[in-house]
Amino acid sequence: MLLPEDLDLSYDFDTMAKAGSMLGSGAIIVVDDTNKVVDVALKLAKFYKHESCGKCSPCREGTNWTVKMLQRIDEGVATPMDLDILSSVQDQIMGNCLCVLGDAMAMPLSSMVKKFRGEFEEHIELARTRNPYPDEVAA
Amino acid sequence: MPRPERKTITFSIDGREVEAAEGTMLVDAAKLGDVEIPVFCYEPKLGAPVGACRMCLVEIEGIPKLQAGCATPVKDGMVVHTQTDKVREAQNSVVEFLLVNHPLDCPVCDKGGECPLQDISYGWGRGRSRMVEPKRHFEKPLALSPLIAIDRERCILCYRCVRFSQEVSEDYQLVLQERGAESFVATFDGHPYVAPFSGNIIELCPVGALTSQPYRFRARPWDIEQSGSVCNLCPGQCNVSYTVRDDRVLRVLGRDHAEVDDGWLCDRGRFAYQAMHVDERITSPMVRDGGVLREVTWERALEEASKALGRAKGGVGAIAGGSTTNEEGFLLQRMVRDALGSPHIDSRASGTLPVGLHAALSAPATQATVPDVEFAHAVLVLDTELVDDMPILDLRVRKGVRRNGLKLAVATSRPSSLDANAAAVARFAPGAGEAFVAALDAALAGGEVAALAAAAGAEEDAVRALADLLRGAGEDIVIVWGERLTHGERGAQAAQALLKVGSRLNPNPHPGAGLLEVPAGANSRGLREVGVLPGIGPGLTAADAGLDTPGIAAAAAAGDLPALYLLHTDPLRDLPDRATWEAALERASTVIAHGAFLTEGLRDYATVIFPTEPPAAKEGTLTHTDGRLQRMRQAIGHPGDSRAEWQVLAELSRRVGLDQQVLTAPMVFAQITAAVPFYAGITLDAIGGTGVRWPVTDAASAWPAGDGAPIALDAPAAAASPNGKLRVGTFRSVWAAPEVEASPALKFLAPKQRAELAPADAERLGIGHGERVLVGGVPAIAHLRTGTPEGSVFLEEGIEAAPAAAITDPLAEVTKA
Predict the structure, then answer these.
(1) What is the ipTM of this complex?
(2) Whose CA, among A125, B402, B586, B724, lies 20 to 30 Å from B40?
(3) Which regions span the lipid bilayer (chain B) (predicted)?
(4) Interstrand relation of B248-254 and B239-245 (parallel, antiparallel or unpaired)
(5) What is residue B194's predicted lDDT score, i.e. its pLDDT?
(6) Closest Cβ opposite residue B181 in set A61, A93, A95
(7) How far apart are the first and last CA of chain A?
(8) Which of B89, B100, B156 sits opposite A65 (nearest CB)?
(9) pLDDT, tens digit, for every residue of A83-113?
(10) Separation CA B584–CA B605 (nearest Å)
């Protein structure tokens, strides 16, 4: 994930990788500031969970677990500590899969948590206040 | 394709220099340096690795990302690390991911205590769970089949069971349905997973997702002991390990032997153990008293038997069934020959072969081994249905075709389950094996094929195609032939034709090629070699000429043999020509039988019955069809009043006047190695847990010279011309066995008589699939099977309610019942 200040980077594999992004197939998704970063993260994670073939465990279980954690954040059943687990899970996926589908989720998600941690924490706090039972994970 | 030659390379793992064969996968090569790399999905028996679980990630210098050790072949100079922080982090991660959806129900899980997931979590996991979200849920446990329970919540999606079904047993039933985290294992059509080798997936499963229905909740790993032995239910002689709790066998596991069973078991071998502990089993001696069989003391039974044998003397006919051990066969033939003076002893169903032909068919120089089947250039499967006759070899052939480019030729009367894997298939009329082999010989020699093919009821083009395939395949050709080819009156001629074809395909005998027999019984080869044949004594020496099995039946029916000794066989179930046998059993004044179950012949005719000890209680040796001597070892005590049968035979022999000087089973084996020159020097210690192939010992030079194949074959018997009737062929299903009927878990597989018909014949006769029919008077259910050659009908042997052996005519009318 790149921020407005990264707009001057040159569009090649090495530079993108250095900036913590990935050129991949070359597509760019532009997200404006009216979107909540948690929504973007959840949408992205759901997409990769759905696309995961399920053959290798880091991708299959990693995408699945990531979606569950983001949903928890969105529903107000999370604490800021969960963000550490969320980004640690992304690290656990990265580089350990059979193909790069898992990496393609882990890389942007981990940079989202890093670069928008404040917004994530705010979202967690707000969602918790809306949830009457913020410490109970639905079974 | 011959075995690949691999050079030795050196690589470094965790600072140790280790030598390994080039191309070995890293996880296997690591073991040579005492380094363990944890795995879940990797199982070399399943073929090429998939690298799916990612448990085996290791660091290799020069490669930035971690690599899957199970899918990375070692190269010279490779430097591998398995103990770095990066690797440990990855291993911790994978364990955590696998536990995301795995329930922590170990205390109530059958696998608990012998579970790779437990062990690896303990050894390579963090030991703490960060997962608080709900796990996925399924209805559980479900019956994947009557034999296997599936718990999908426990499944870690390693693909092992699916790969087994798709790539080893090739029944193509198991698949992964859905995708990603929604994946689950199921049969493709939702029907139960019923297949001859299905039980192997229980042993393959690295978690408790697939459990054995009969074993579920019967024991925990700390309640049980494992005891190695050899399965004696079929000639495959797979190496097994009995799970014993409180002197009862509760489970059978494979004891991997790459040169015998390749680590697999069939479901009969895996589940028929239940028949060892059922109430129907005979566990004390019985004597017919006033027309009724009664349980009696050993003293009474032995006395009755010895008196009757003493009266009959030379009028005793003895037949040993295929599950008889070498020791039992040896003691029996000495008692019958030396104590009673009767030469009438046999272990074959029908057809006497001269000693020279026995010698030629199993000669060490032209003998192929089981692994040769996998690495040959081409294999001819001749007159045998492997999945029924020697199931484990069926998997070996499939493996050769799938992984080693083996060219397969199948020549049988009945459509074979291997047809789909074969490069050439030929059909011949039931019972026309001799003519077919003669036709094949002519085709290989470039001679006149048409007349011989017609005599065999085969298509000339198919015979030629088969010959072309075998001739052009390469120098390593293995012929896997069924013993039934050499049964019947013209068995010797068929054997000669077979030898001739064998020598044409392998003009220069060499290891890796030759003949491999699929015997009719589990230990048929051993029984022949210890002298349980008419006119042939231990070590294929000459003995007084006697009657063979059909001869014994005829003589007994005519009143010339007053006593019959049936060791592990019920002629009404196991042997052809039922009418003669019924007459023989009726007429004989004494019928002494060793049996496990009161099957028809024993129930109605036996005068003295000695209980057959369960296989797990047996001690003795068996000789595998490729010459490997293997040991059955006692795992449990003798149930009820039963005794070791070698002891019973020795005691009986003493009572009829010959003390064979045996106090233990190993003493019998010592006598065998003294009497059989080509077993000389082999000890039970040497046989140990993996066996000794005598054809590669020094003693093999004592094998008698075989009769060379004759230059010209005489005209073979032609298959009967149908004339409006159908030719009757029979086959014995792997499930047609008393131990299947007696095992609660397997009972559902016990076959009912069915008549396999070609759809065209059925249409002509106005018979539909599933209708009741009579085949020569035998009731059956019509089973239309594509591929069945027109003009033939096939019935199952060994079915008590509708015995195929009642039909003696080669032709029969099929009518609606």
Answers:
(1) 0.96
(2) B402
(3) none
(4) antiparallel
(5) 96
(6) A61
(7) 33
(8) B100
(9) 999 999 999 999 999 999 999 999 999 999 9
(10) 10
Gap between the Cα atoms of B287 and B146, Å rounded = 38
Question: Which residue range is the domain that position A63 belongs to?
Answer: 34-130
A:B CB pairs within 8 Å: 90
Same domain, B305 and B271: no
Asked if residue B461 and residue B362 are part of one domain, the reply reads: yes
Residue A1 lies in a domain: no
- Of the candidates B97, B100, B133, the beta carbon closest to that of A137 is on B133
Indicate the pLDDT class of residue B709, thresholds 50, 70 and 90.
low
Read off the CATH number of the domain in which B398 is found: 3.40.228.10
CATH of the domain at A109: 1.20.1440.230
Check CB contact of B134 with chain A, cutoff 8 Å: yes
- Are residues B435 and B474 both part of a single domain? yes
Report DSSP state, residue B129: -
**Domain containing B764 — which CATH number?**
2.40.40.20
Q: Quick one: B325 and B416 in the same domain?
A: no
Residue B553 has pLDDT above 70, yes or no: yes
Percent of chain B with pLDDT over 90: 95
In chain B, what residues touch A49 (CB-CB under 8 Å)?
A: 180-181
Total domains present in chain B: 5
Are B332 and B320 within 8 A, CB to CB? yes
The total domain count for chain A is 1
- Average pLDDT, stretch B511-537? 97
Length of chain A: 139
Which residues on chain B are in Cβ contact (under 8 Å) with A54?
157, 176, 178-183
A74 touches chain B (CB under 8 A): no
- Whether the Cβ atoms of residue B216 and residue B250 lie closer than 8 Å to each other: no
- Mean pLDDT of the region B797-813: 91
Q: Assign residue B787 a region: left if phi > 0, alpha if psi is -120 to 50, beta otherwise?
A: left
Any A CB within 8 A of B179 CB: yes
Tell me, yes or no, if B711 comes closer than 8 A to chain A by beta carbon: no
Q: What is the mean pLDDT of residues B147-171?
A: 97
Flag whether pLDDT at B279 surpasses 90: yes
For residue B196, being part of any structural domain is answered with yes
* A85/B182 CB distance under 8 A: no
User: In A33-80, which ranges are continuous DSSP H helix?
Assistant: 37-51, 57-75
Do B27 and B78 lie in a common domain?
yes
- For the segment B357-415, what is each residue's pLDDT rounded down to a tens digit? 999 999 999 999 999 999 999 999 999 999 999 999 999 999 999 999 999 999 999 99
Residue A19 lies in a domain: no
pLDDT bin (cut points 50, 70, 90) of residue B711 is low
The verdict on B635 and B770 lying in the same domain is: no
Residues B207/B156, Cβ–Cβ less than 8 Å: yes
What is the average pLDDT value for chain B, to the nearest integer?
A: 95
- Tokens in use for B607? 């005068």
Nearest to B146 by CA among B600, B635, B750: B750
Q: B98 at the A interface (CB within 8 A)?
A: yes
User: Same structural domain for residues B587 and B514?
Assistant: no
Q: Which of the four pLDDT bands, split at 50, 70 and 90, describes residue A60? A: very high
User: Are B556 and B318 spatial neighbours (Cβ–Cβ below 8 Å)?
Assistant: no
At residue B702, the pLDDT reads 95
In whole angstroms, give the CA distance from residue B50 to residue B213: 29
B589 touches chain A (CB under 8 A): no
Domain limits at B36? 8-83
pLDDT for residue A25: 83
- Residue B268: enclosing H or E segment and its boundaries? helix B267-271
Cα(A62)–Cα(B98) distance, rounded to whole angstroms?
A: 10
Residue A44 lies in a domain: yes
Closest CA to B786 of B427, B408, B482: B427
Mode of pairing for the β-strands spanning B608-611 and B590-595: parallel
One-letter amino acid for residue B461 of the chain: D
Q: What is the mean pLDDT of residues B23-31?
A: 96
Joined together, the tokens standing for residue B404 give 């080693």
